[in-house]
């Protein structure tokens, strides 16, 4: 068995970023930039008012009160075409361009309007309430770097930079194949020795949430010919993910069938719990990641290994396990040689901070505890017994629709 860290390193080293495609800005949310997004315009394009008020020369309002003659206005989308002279002011609104000759803004709350004049009651200094040209960005600036996962805020920035199109990394095509005579799809008739399978659908949801395109191949029976035929559906995929059939039982066929048909095996079995029977190799041009069949093991391995694979394919920088720390909420015994991932609830103590309390039972078939967990407590191999209050590493689950 190899360590989790070595397995993740070897998997990611064998994966290369995918090619790119151009998409409209409206289609770019959640995609990963394949090249720097460079501003095509300067924002703001000229000095602008940050407030409603009056554009003035700071020298004219150094001593107040003082009366100034209003000679025009500069609304947003319009401009005062003349040049401001001594003793003059221009009515201006937020976003209006600063007139030539003006260097400051007196906000409207600090003046009294007297016909075509304003009485300035409170002075200002040069540059006050003025947004200089290029305050946000200048044409040619890199606003968003290559490898960035685009958020709602990023879409707004790209739009402001006048970028109607963005070049993003192609979504990885990931084929998913569950195995086992005992598994049926949700809604199908359940035989006396069968259970409803969750791995295919949960893995497909995981792939989608991480930015990939899931190709759900269905459930293969424990039959070599049928398994080979269904695996053919992965042709053209960037990655084949299997669940079940990768252990050592006589009905665990995935490993053998793939090797019989040309898979080059990198490794098989990892010193982790849950998830020992993890396999990685290459079947033709398609990488293969074999997962355990137990549903919790499958999703824990997806979090630890599949997400970094997808991030590497998408060109995201430095994929990792995103560990954090918390205080342990209950005593734990010493660990054995396998790195342990314990489902836990996460609470926050005003004095102590985050507290992770493991569920009492950690059976890898118990999906409900995974669904209700907030994080995984990560216990390294041969970790000593830990008392409540000890600082431990955790792998937090994401919020929103990803949830893992």
Descriptive notes:
The chain has 404 residues and is α/β, with parallel strands linked by helices. The chain folds into four domains: 4-17 and 171-313, Molybdenum Cofactor Biosythetic Enzyme, Chain A (3-Layer(aba) Sandwich), CATH 3.40.980; 22-40 and 146-169, no CATH class; 48-131, Molybdopterin biosynthesis moeA protein, domain 3 (Beta Complex); 324-396, Beta-clip (Beta Barrel). It is built from seven helices and 26 strands. It has helices spanning 4-13, 152-160, 199-209, 224-231, 254-260, 295-313, 367-372, and strands at residues 20-24, 37-38, 48-49, 53-56, 66-74, 88-92, 104-107, 111-114, 117-120, 130-131, 142-144, 165-169, 173-179, 183-184, 195-196, 213-220, 239-243, 264-268, 272-273, 279-283, 286-291, 324-328, 339-349, 353-358, 375-379, 391-396. It has a six-stranded mixed beta sheet with strand order 7-4-6-5-9-8, with no helix packed on it. A six-stranded mixed beta sheet has the order 16-13-17-21-20-18, sandwiched between helices. The protein has a five-stranded mixed barrel with strand order 22-24-23-25-26. Helix 1 (4-13) crosses helix 6 (295-313) and helix 3 runs parallel beside helix 6.
